[in-house]
Amino acid sequence: MSVREIPMYIDGQPIQSQSQEWRDVVNPATQEVVARVPFCTAEEVERAVASAKEAFKTWRKVPLAKRMRIMLKLQALIRDNTDELAALITEEHGKTLPDAAGEVGRGLEVVEHACSITSLQLGELAENAASEVDVYTLNQPLGVGAGITAFNFPIMLPCFMFPLAIATGNTFVLKPSEQDPSSTMRLVELAHEAGIPAGVLNVVHGGPDVANQIADHTDIKALSFIGSTHVGSLLYNRAAAVGKRMQSMMGAKNHCVIMPDANRSQAINNLLGSAYGAAGQRCMANSVVVLVGEAREWLEDIVEGTRSMKVGPGTQTDADLGPLVSPQAKERVERLITAGEKEGAKLLVDGRGYQVEGYPDGNFVGPTLFTDVTAEMTIYREEIFGPVLCVVTVDTLDEAIAFINANPNGNGTSIFTNSGWVARRFESDIDVGQVGINVPIPVPVAYFSFTGSRGSKLGDLGPNGKQAIAFWTQTKTVTARWFEPENVSSGINSTISLS
Protein backbone atom coordinates (compact mmCIF):
# COMPACT_ATOMS: atom_id res chain seq x y z
CA MET A 1 0.00 0.00 0.00
CA SER A 2 1.32 3.43 -0.94
CA VAL A 3 1.80 5.98 1.81
CA ARG A 4 0.09 9.32 1.24
CA GLU A 5 2.13 12.48 1.76
CA ILE A 6 -0.25 15.06 3.17
CA PRO A 7 0.14 18.46 1.51
CA MET A 8 -0.48 21.92 2.82
CA TYR A 9 -3.17 23.90 1.05
CA ILE A 10 -2.16 27.48 0.29
CA ASP A 11 -3.55 29.96 -2.21
CA GLY A 12 -5.92 27.41 -3.67
CA GLN A 13 -3.35 24.69 -4.32
CA PRO A 14 -2.01 21.59 -2.56
CA ILE A 15 1.64 22.30 -1.83
CA GLN A 16 4.37 20.00 -0.57
CA SER A 17 5.97 21.21 2.64
CA GLN A 18 9.72 21.74 2.73
CA SER A 19 9.82 20.86 6.42
CA GLN A 20 12.43 18.41 7.66
CA GLU A 21 10.01 17.15 10.33
CA TRP A 22 7.34 14.66 9.30
CA ARG A 23 5.14 12.35 11.33
CA ASP A 24 3.64 8.99 10.41
CA VAL A 25 -0.14 8.67 10.33
CA VAL A 26 -1.00 5.15 11.48
CA ASN A 27 -4.05 2.93 11.14
CA PRO A 28 -4.90 2.31 14.81
CA ALA A 29 -6.29 -1.17 14.14
CA THR A 30 -3.14 -2.46 12.40
CA GLN A 31 -0.29 0.01 13.10
CA GLU A 32 0.20 0.25 9.33
CA VAL A 33 1.57 3.62 8.22
CA VAL A 34 -1.01 5.05 5.81
CA ALA A 35 0.23 8.63 5.45
CA ARG A 36 2.93 11.10 6.43
CA VAL A 37 2.16 14.63 7.58
CA PRO A 38 4.60 17.56 7.79
CA PHE A 39 5.16 19.87 10.71
CA CYS A 40 5.18 23.05 8.67
CA THR A 41 7.90 25.65 8.98
CA ALA A 42 7.28 29.12 10.36
CA GLU A 43 7.76 30.51 6.87
CA GLU A 44 5.06 28.21 5.48
CA VAL A 45 2.58 29.27 8.16
CA GLU A 46 3.40 32.89 7.38
CA ARG A 47 2.75 32.21 3.71
CA ALA A 48 -0.67 30.72 4.51
CA VAL A 49 -1.66 33.71 6.63
CA ALA A 50 -0.45 36.13 3.97
CA SER A 51 -2.51 34.30 1.34
CA ALA A 52 -5.63 34.56 3.53
CA LYS A 53 -4.97 38.23 4.25
CA GLU A 54 -4.67 39.06 0.57
CA ALA A 55 -7.76 37.05 -0.37
CA PHE A 56 -9.82 38.87 2.27
CA LYS A 57 -9.58 42.10 0.27
CA THR A 58 -11.85 40.69 -2.40
CA TRP A 59 -13.72 37.88 -0.61
CA ARG A 60 -15.24 40.24 1.94
CA LYS A 61 -17.01 42.06 -0.93
CA VAL A 62 -18.40 38.95 -2.59
CA PRO A 63 -22.22 39.11 -2.46
CA LEU A 64 -23.94 37.08 0.23
CA ALA A 65 -25.95 35.17 -2.35
CA LYS A 66 -22.77 34.00 -4.11
CA ARG A 67 -21.27 32.81 -0.83
CA MET A 68 -24.55 30.99 -0.16
CA ARG A 69 -24.40 29.22 -3.52
CA ILE A 70 -20.88 27.98 -2.76
CA MET A 71 -22.11 26.53 0.52
CA LEU A 72 -25.03 24.89 -1.29
CA LYS A 73 -22.57 23.26 -3.67
CA LEU A 74 -20.32 22.17 -0.79
CA GLN A 75 -23.15 20.49 1.12
CA ALA A 76 -24.09 18.55 -2.02
CA LEU A 77 -20.49 17.42 -2.51
CA ILE A 78 -20.15 16.32 1.11
CA ARG A 79 -23.36 14.30 0.85
CA ASP A 80 -22.20 12.67 -2.39
CA ASN A 81 -18.80 11.80 -0.89
CA THR A 82 -19.92 10.64 2.55
CA ASP A 83 -18.68 7.07 2.08
CA GLU A 84 -15.21 8.20 1.01
CA LEU A 85 -14.91 10.66 3.90
CA ALA A 86 -16.11 8.04 6.39
CA ALA A 87 -13.59 5.50 5.10
CA LEU A 88 -10.74 7.98 5.57
CA ILE A 89 -11.92 8.75 9.11
CA THR A 90 -12.05 5.07 10.00
CA GLU A 91 -8.65 4.32 8.48
CA GLU A 92 -6.84 6.98 10.52
CA HIS A 93 -9.03 7.48 13.60
CA GLY A 94 -10.37 3.96 14.11
CA LYS A 95 -14.06 4.66 14.78
CA THR A 96 -16.53 2.36 13.11
CA LEU A 97 -17.75 3.16 9.61
CA PRO A 98 -21.36 3.83 10.73
CA ASP A 99 -20.05 6.16 13.43
CA ALA A 100 -17.78 7.89 10.90
CA ALA A 101 -20.69 8.36 8.50
CA GLY A 102 -22.67 9.83 11.38
CA GLU A 103 -19.86 12.29 12.01
CA VAL A 104 -19.93 13.39 8.37
CA GLY A 105 -23.66 13.93 8.74
CA ARG A 106 -23.23 16.18 11.78
CA GLY A 107 -20.60 18.21 9.94
CA LEU A 108 -22.94 18.47 6.97
CA GLU A 109 -25.57 20.04 9.23
CA VAL A 110 -23.26 23.01 9.83
CA VAL A 111 -22.62 23.52 6.12
CA GLU A 112 -26.37 23.39 5.52
CA HIS A 113 -26.78 26.02 8.24
CA ALA A 114 -24.18 28.19 6.46
CA CYS A 115 -26.41 28.06 3.37
CA SER A 116 -28.75 30.42 5.28
CA ILE A 117 -26.11 33.14 5.46
CA THR A 118 -28.26 35.58 3.47
CA SER A 119 -30.58 35.81 6.47
CA LEU A 120 -28.12 35.00 9.26
CA GLN A 121 -25.89 38.03 8.62
CA LEU A 122 -28.61 40.65 8.51
CA GLY A 123 -28.26 43.76 10.63
CA GLU A 124 -30.92 45.88 12.36
CA LEU A 125 -32.52 49.20 11.45
CA ALA A 126 -34.39 51.83 13.42
CA GLU A 127 -35.97 54.42 11.15
CA ASN A 128 -36.37 57.91 12.64
CA ALA A 129 -34.59 57.05 15.86
CA ALA A 130 -34.42 60.82 16.13
CA SER A 131 -35.70 63.52 13.83
CA GLU A 132 -34.82 62.25 10.32
CA VAL A 133 -32.06 60.11 11.86
CA ASP A 134 -31.78 56.42 11.05
CA VAL A 135 -29.65 54.01 13.10
CA TYR A 136 -28.61 50.65 11.68
CA THR A 137 -26.05 47.94 12.23
CA LEU A 138 -23.79 46.09 9.81
CA ASN A 139 -22.42 42.65 10.67
CA GLN A 140 -19.08 42.71 8.90
CA PRO A 141 -16.35 40.07 8.66
CA LEU A 142 -13.30 40.34 10.89
CA GLY A 143 -10.54 39.41 8.45
CA VAL A 144 -8.41 36.29 8.71
CA GLY A 145 -9.82 33.60 10.99
CA ALA A 146 -8.15 30.40 12.13
CA GLY A 147 -9.10 27.03 13.55
CA ILE A 148 -7.21 24.32 15.43
CA THR A 149 -9.02 20.99 15.74
CA ALA A 150 -8.66 17.80 17.78
CA PHE A 151 -8.28 14.30 16.34
CA ASN A 152 -11.57 12.84 17.50
CA PHE A 153 -13.80 14.43 14.83
CA PRO A 154 -11.65 15.21 11.77
CA ILE A 155 -14.67 16.21 9.65
CA MET A 156 -17.19 17.58 12.15
CA LEU A 157 -14.82 19.89 14.02
CA PRO A 158 -13.45 21.68 10.91
CA CYS A 159 -17.10 22.06 9.83
CA PHE A 160 -17.77 23.73 13.18
CA MET A 161 -15.28 26.39 12.09
CA PHE A 162 -14.54 27.31 8.50
CA PRO A 163 -17.95 27.11 6.72
CA LEU A 164 -19.59 29.82 8.84
CA ALA A 165 -16.37 31.85 9.06
CA ILE A 166 -16.05 31.87 5.27
CA ALA A 167 -19.77 32.34 4.63
CA THR A 168 -19.69 35.53 6.73
CA GLY A 169 -16.89 36.93 4.55
CA ASN A 170 -13.74 35.98 6.43
CA THR A 171 -10.80 34.03 5.07
CA PHE A 172 -9.35 31.10 6.98
CA VAL A 173 -6.26 29.17 8.08
CA LEU A 174 -6.97 25.67 9.39
CA LYS A 175 -4.62 23.45 11.39
CA PRO A 176 -6.18 19.98 11.61
CA SER A 177 -4.94 17.26 13.92
CA GLU A 178 -1.72 15.65 12.75
CA GLN A 179 -3.06 12.26 13.87
CA ASP A 180 -5.77 11.85 11.20
CA PRO A 181 -5.55 14.63 8.58
CA SER A 182 -6.58 12.85 5.36
CA SER A 183 -10.36 13.21 5.71
CA THR A 184 -9.94 16.90 6.59
CA MET A 185 -7.81 17.45 3.49
CA ARG A 186 -10.42 15.74 1.31
CA LEU A 187 -13.03 18.07 2.82
CA VAL A 188 -10.86 21.06 1.88
CA GLU A 189 -10.56 19.73 -1.67
CA LEU A 190 -14.35 19.51 -1.87
CA ALA A 191 -14.63 23.08 -0.60
CA HIS A 192 -12.45 24.31 -3.46
CA GLU A 193 -14.38 22.15 -5.92
CA ALA A 194 -17.50 23.93 -4.66
CA GLY A 195 -16.02 27.26 -5.72
CA ILE A 196 -14.17 28.73 -2.75
CA PRO A 197 -11.60 31.07 -4.34
CA ALA A 198 -7.84 30.72 -3.94
CA GLY A 199 -6.55 31.96 -0.59
CA VAL A 200 -9.90 31.93 1.17
CA LEU A 201 -9.26 28.54 2.85
CA ASN A 202 -5.69 27.51 3.66
CA VAL A 203 -4.34 24.52 5.60
CA VAL A 204 -1.12 24.06 7.55
CA HIS A 205 0.01 21.17 9.74
CA GLY A 206 2.09 20.83 12.87
CA GLY A 207 2.29 20.70 16.62
CA PRO A 208 2.69 23.24 19.42
CA ASP A 209 5.00 25.56 17.46
CA VAL A 210 2.49 26.01 14.66
CA ALA A 211 -0.42 26.39 17.11
CA ASN A 212 1.48 29.06 19.05
CA GLN A 213 2.39 30.91 15.87
CA ILE A 214 -1.28 31.02 14.89
CA ALA A 215 -2.29 32.26 18.36
CA ASP A 216 0.41 34.95 18.34
CA HIS A 217 -0.07 36.17 14.76
CA THR A 218 -1.49 39.69 14.69
CA ASP A 219 -2.93 39.29 11.18
CA ILE A 220 -5.24 36.56 12.45
CA LYS A 221 -8.22 38.26 14.05
CA ALA A 222 -10.09 35.30 15.56
CA LEU A 223 -9.15 31.76 16.57
CA SER A 224 -11.41 28.79 17.30
CA PHE A 225 -9.92 25.85 19.21
CA ILE A 226 -11.36 22.46 20.13
CA GLY A 227 -9.19 20.14 22.20
CA SER A 228 -7.72 19.57 25.63
CA THR A 229 -8.13 21.94 28.56
CA HIS A 230 -4.37 22.33 28.98
CA VAL A 231 -3.73 23.37 25.37
CA GLY A 232 -6.93 25.39 25.07
CA SER A 233 -6.11 27.46 28.15
CA LEU A 234 -2.59 28.21 26.93
CA LEU A 235 -3.75 29.24 23.48
CA TYR A 236 -6.59 31.35 24.88
CA ASN A 237 -4.15 33.37 26.97
CA ARG A 238 -1.68 33.77 24.11
CA ALA A 239 -4.42 34.90 21.73
CA ALA A 240 -5.86 37.34 24.28
CA ALA A 241 -2.43 38.87 24.80
CA VAL A 242 -2.42 40.12 21.20
CA GLY A 243 -6.07 41.18 21.22
CA LYS A 244 -7.37 38.23 19.22
CA ARG A 245 -10.97 37.07 19.52
CA MET A 246 -10.85 33.52 20.90
CA GLN A 247 -13.07 30.55 21.70
CA SER A 248 -11.71 27.42 23.37
CA MET A 249 -13.93 24.37 23.64
CA MET A 250 -12.07 22.08 26.01
CA GLY A 251 -12.24 19.09 28.35
CA ALA A 252 -15.25 17.51 29.95
CA LYS A 253 -16.58 15.07 32.50
CA ASN A 254 -20.11 14.33 31.41
CA HIS A 255 -22.74 12.70 33.61
CA CYS A 256 -25.82 10.70 32.73
CA VAL A 257 -28.49 10.66 35.45
CA ILE A 258 -30.89 7.73 35.42
CA MET A 259 -34.08 8.07 37.45
CA PRO A 260 -35.97 4.96 38.61
CA ASP A 261 -39.03 5.96 36.56
CA ALA A 262 -37.09 5.99 33.28
CA ASN A 263 -37.69 3.52 30.47
CA ARG A 264 -35.21 0.89 31.61
CA SER A 265 -34.04 -0.58 28.30
CA GLN A 266 -33.94 2.78 26.53
CA ALA A 267 -31.93 4.39 29.32
CA ILE A 268 -29.37 1.58 29.55
CA ASN A 269 -28.89 1.17 25.80
CA ASN A 270 -28.47 4.92 25.32
CA LEU A 271 -26.06 5.09 28.23
CA LEU A 272 -23.85 2.31 26.89
CA GLY A 273 -23.75 3.79 23.40
CA SER A 274 -22.81 7.22 24.69
CA ALA A 275 -20.17 5.90 27.08
CA TYR A 276 -18.42 3.41 24.81
CA GLY A 277 -19.13 4.60 21.26
CA ALA A 278 -16.03 5.82 19.40
CA ALA A 279 -14.09 4.01 22.17
CA GLY A 280 -15.05 6.89 24.48
CA GLN A 281 -13.08 9.38 22.40
CA ARG A 282 -15.76 12.06 22.40
CA CYS A 283 -15.76 15.27 24.39
CA MET A 284 -19.48 14.62 24.96
CA ALA A 285 -19.13 10.97 26.00
CA ASN A 286 -21.07 10.07 29.13
CA SER A 287 -18.22 8.74 31.24
CA VAL A 288 -20.16 8.88 34.53
CA VAL A 289 -23.61 7.44 35.22
CA VAL A 290 -25.46 8.60 38.34
CA LEU A 291 -28.05 6.02 39.39
CA VAL A 292 -30.73 7.61 41.55
CA GLY A 293 -32.62 5.62 44.20
CA GLU A 294 -33.95 2.30 43.00
CA ALA A 295 -32.20 2.73 39.64
CA ARG A 296 -29.11 1.34 41.39
CA GLU A 297 -30.80 -2.03 41.05
CA TRP A 298 -30.22 -1.78 37.28
CA LEU A 299 -26.47 -2.18 37.72
CA GLU A 300 -26.55 -5.86 36.75
CA ASP A 301 -28.17 -4.98 33.42
CA ILE A 302 -25.56 -2.27 32.80
CA VAL A 303 -22.78 -4.78 33.50
CA GLU A 304 -24.38 -7.32 31.17
CA GLY A 305 -24.75 -4.71 28.43
CA THR A 306 -21.13 -3.63 28.85
CA ARG A 307 -19.91 -7.21 28.45
CA SER A 308 -22.07 -7.71 25.35
CA MET A 309 -20.54 -4.87 23.35
CA LYS A 310 -18.44 -5.93 20.39
CA VAL A 311 -14.96 -4.54 19.81
CA GLY A 312 -13.31 -4.70 16.40
CA PRO A 313 -11.67 -2.72 13.63
CA GLY A 314 -13.71 0.18 12.35
CA THR A 315 -14.30 -1.62 9.06
CA GLN A 316 -16.18 -4.39 10.88
CA THR A 317 -19.69 -3.08 10.45
CA ASP A 318 -21.19 -4.94 13.42
CA ALA A 319 -18.56 -3.66 15.87
CA ASP A 320 -19.83 -1.30 18.56
CA LEU A 321 -16.45 0.36 19.06
CA GLY A 322 -13.05 0.33 17.44
CA PRO A 323 -9.51 0.96 18.67
CA LEU A 324 -8.11 4.01 20.39
CA VAL A 325 -6.29 6.42 18.12
CA SER A 326 -2.72 5.57 19.19
CA PRO A 327 -0.63 3.24 21.37
CA GLN A 328 -0.01 6.21 23.65
CA ALA A 329 -3.75 6.71 24.11
CA LYS A 330 -4.17 3.01 24.91
CA GLU A 331 -1.35 3.11 27.46
CA ARG A 332 -2.85 6.18 29.16
CA VAL A 333 -6.34 4.67 29.41
CA GLU A 334 -5.03 1.38 30.82
CA ARG A 335 -2.88 3.31 33.30
CA LEU A 336 -5.97 5.18 34.51
CA ILE A 337 -7.89 1.92 34.89
CA THR A 338 -5.06 0.62 37.07
CA ALA A 339 -5.18 3.84 39.11
CA GLY A 340 -8.91 3.35 39.66
CA GLU A 341 -8.29 -0.11 41.08
CA LYS A 342 -5.54 1.13 43.38
CA GLU A 343 -7.69 3.98 44.69
CA GLY A 344 -10.51 1.67 45.73
CA ALA A 345 -13.04 1.70 42.90
CA LYS A 346 -14.59 -1.70 42.19
CA LEU A 347 -13.71 -2.96 38.72
CA LEU A 348 -16.64 -5.01 37.41
CA VAL A 349 -15.60 -5.18 33.75
CA ASP A 350 -11.92 -4.90 32.81
CA GLY A 351 -11.02 -3.90 29.24
CA ARG A 352 -7.26 -3.98 29.64
CA GLY A 353 -5.27 -6.30 27.41
CA TYR A 354 -8.17 -6.71 25.02
CA GLN A 355 -7.33 -8.77 21.93
CA VAL A 356 -9.20 -8.78 18.62
CA GLU A 357 -8.63 -11.81 16.43
CA GLY A 358 -6.62 -10.93 13.35
CA TYR A 359 -5.53 -7.55 14.74
CA PRO A 360 -2.83 -8.32 17.30
CA ASP A 361 -1.29 -4.85 17.08
CA GLY A 362 -4.48 -2.81 17.39
CA ASN A 363 -4.91 -0.16 20.07
CA PHE A 364 -7.91 -1.94 21.57
CA VAL A 365 -9.29 -1.39 25.05
CA GLY A 366 -12.51 -3.18 25.87
CA PRO A 367 -15.51 -1.55 27.56
CA THR A 368 -14.61 -1.04 31.21
CA LEU A 369 -16.95 -0.49 34.15
CA PHE A 370 -16.21 0.79 37.68
CA THR A 371 -18.55 1.08 40.64
CA ASP A 372 -18.02 2.64 44.08
CA VAL A 373 -16.46 5.68 42.40
CA THR A 374 -15.97 8.84 44.45
CA ALA A 375 -15.23 12.40 43.40
CA GLU A 376 -11.69 12.23 44.80
CA MET A 377 -10.57 9.38 42.55
CA THR A 378 -8.33 9.95 39.55
CA ILE A 379 -10.73 8.15 37.23
CA TYR A 380 -13.39 10.69 38.16
CA ARG A 381 -11.23 13.81 38.23
CA GLU A 382 -9.52 13.23 34.87
CA GLU A 383 -11.09 13.03 31.43
CA ILE A 384 -10.18 9.46 30.49
CA PHE A 385 -11.07 9.72 26.78
CA GLY A 386 -11.48 5.97 26.54
CA PRO A 387 -14.19 3.31 26.94
CA VAL A 388 -14.42 3.58 30.73
CA LEU A 389 -17.69 4.15 32.58
CA CYS A 390 -17.82 5.16 36.25
CA VAL A 391 -20.96 4.35 38.27
CA VAL A 392 -22.06 6.64 41.11
CA THR A 393 -25.15 6.00 43.23
CA VAL A 394 -27.21 8.58 45.15
CA ASP A 395 -30.57 8.56 46.88
CA THR A 396 -32.23 11.67 45.43
CA LEU A 397 -32.32 13.99 42.44
CA ASP A 398 -31.02 16.80 44.67
CA GLU A 399 -27.92 14.76 45.45
CA ALA A 400 -27.38 14.01 41.75
CA ILE A 401 -27.60 17.69 40.85
CA ALA A 402 -25.26 18.72 43.65
CA PHE A 403 -22.73 16.04 42.66
CA ILE A 404 -22.66 17.16 39.01
CA ASN A 405 -22.53 20.86 39.84
CA ALA A 406 -19.50 20.27 42.07
CA ASN A 407 -17.50 19.05 39.07
CA PRO A 408 -15.43 21.87 37.52
CA ASN A 409 -16.47 21.01 33.95
CA GLY A 410 -19.72 21.95 32.28
CA ASN A 411 -19.75 20.52 28.78
CA GLY A 412 -22.79 18.25 28.75
CA THR A 413 -25.12 16.18 30.91
CA SER A 414 -28.25 14.13 30.39
CA ILE A 415 -31.12 12.70 32.38
CA PHE A 416 -33.41 9.77 31.68
CA THR A 417 -36.85 10.07 33.24
CA ASN A 418 -40.54 9.85 32.37
CA SER A 419 -41.39 12.76 34.67
CA GLY A 420 -41.75 16.18 33.09
CA TRP A 421 -41.43 17.80 36.49
CA VAL A 422 -38.13 16.01 37.20
CA ALA A 423 -36.78 16.90 33.75
CA ARG A 424 -37.71 20.56 34.14
CA ARG A 425 -36.20 20.71 37.61
CA PHE A 426 -32.99 19.15 36.30
CA GLU A 427 -32.62 21.50 33.34
CA SER A 428 -33.28 24.49 35.60
CA ASP A 429 -30.90 23.66 38.44
CA ILE A 430 -28.03 21.91 36.65
CA ASP A 431 -25.01 24.14 35.99
CA VAL A 432 -23.96 22.61 32.69
CA GLY A 433 -24.06 24.23 29.27
CA GLN A 434 -25.75 21.44 27.29
CA VAL A 435 -28.51 19.26 28.69
CA GLY A 436 -30.14 16.17 27.22
CA ILE A 437 -33.54 14.90 28.35
CA ASN A 438 -33.79 11.25 27.32
CA VAL A 439 -31.02 12.14 24.85
CA PRO A 440 -27.60 10.76 25.82
CA ILE A 441 -25.29 13.08 23.87
CA PRO A 442 -26.89 16.54 23.75
CA VAL A 443 -24.82 18.07 20.95
CA PRO A 444 -27.36 20.52 19.54
CA VAL A 445 -28.31 20.71 15.89
CA ALA A 446 -26.15 23.17 13.97
CA TYR A 447 -28.62 26.05 13.96
CA PHE A 448 -28.29 26.14 17.75
CA SER A 449 -24.97 27.06 19.30
CA PHE A 450 -22.62 24.66 21.06
CA THR A 451 -22.85 25.96 24.62
CA GLY A 452 -20.45 24.12 26.91
CA SER A 453 -19.72 26.11 30.04
CA ARG A 454 -17.50 26.59 33.11
CA GLY A 455 -14.21 24.67 32.89
CA SER A 456 -15.13 23.23 29.50
CA LYS A 457 -15.16 26.55 27.69
CA LEU A 458 -13.24 29.81 27.47
CA GLY A 459 -14.78 32.69 25.56
CA ASP A 460 -18.31 34.06 25.52
CA LEU A 461 -19.36 32.69 22.12
CA GLY A 462 -19.44 29.06 21.02
CA PRO A 463 -19.46 27.38 17.59
CA ASN A 464 -22.58 27.04 15.43
CA GLY A 465 -25.90 28.81 15.60
CA LYS A 466 -26.27 32.53 16.20
CA GLN A 467 -23.26 32.65 18.50
CA ALA A 468 -20.97 31.61 15.65
CA ILE A 469 -22.26 34.42 13.45
CA ALA A 470 -21.51 36.86 16.26
CA PHE A 471 -18.05 35.32 16.79
CA TRP A 472 -16.99 35.61 13.15
CA THR A 473 -18.36 39.14 12.60
CA GLN A 474 -18.03 42.56 14.15
CA THR A 475 -20.96 44.89 14.53
CA LYS A 476 -20.67 48.36 13.07
CA THR A 477 -23.41 50.81 14.08
CA VAL A 478 -24.21 53.66 11.71
CA THR A 479 -26.15 56.77 12.72
CA ALA A 480 -27.19 58.67 9.58
CA ARG A 481 -29.02 61.89 8.77
CA TRP A 482 -29.44 63.24 5.23
CA PHE A 483 -30.18 66.96 4.91
CA GLU A 484 -32.42 68.41 2.26
CA PRO A 485 -30.30 70.22 -0.34
CA GLU A 486 -31.72 73.61 0.64
CA ASN A 487 -31.63 72.98 4.40
CA VAL A 488 -30.00 75.75 6.40
CA SER A 489 -28.48 75.07 9.79
CA SER A 490 -30.21 76.65 12.72
CA GLY A 491 -26.93 77.17 14.57
CA ILE A 492 -24.21 75.35 16.43
CA ASN A 493 -25.38 72.49 18.62
CA SER A 494 -22.87 71.92 21.43
CA THR A 495 -24.91 69.20 23.15
CA ILE A 496 -25.14 65.50 22.36
CA SER A 497 -28.82 65.73 21.49
CA LEU A 498 -30.01 64.15 18.24
CA SER A 499 -33.29 66.04 18.26
Q: Notable features of this structure?
A:
23 strands; 499 residues; 7-stranded mixed β-sheet; globular; single chain; 6-stranded mixed β-sheet; alpha/beta
Summarize the model shown.
This protein has 499 residues and is an alpha/beta fold.
Could you describe the 3D structure shown?
With 499 residues, this protein is an alpha/beta fold. It has helices at residues 42-59, 64-80, 82-93, 97-114, 117-120, 156-159, 162-167, 182-193, 208-216, 229-241, 264-276, 299-308, 327-342, 378-381, 397-405, 420-429, 465-471, and strands at residues 4-5, 8-10, 13-15, 22-26, 33-38, 125-130, 133-141, 144-148, 171-175, 201-203, 220-226, 245-249, 254-258, 286-292, 346-349, 368-371, 388-394, 409-410, 413-416, 435-437, 453-454, 457-458, 473-481. The strands form six sheets. The protein has a seven-stranded mixed sheet with strand order 15-16-17-14-13-19-20, sandwiched between helices. Helix 11 (264-276) links the parallel strand 13 (254-258) and strand 14 (286-292). Helix 2 (64-80) packs antiparallel against helix 4. The protein is globular and about 85 Å long. The model has no long low-confidence stretch (mean pLDDT 96).
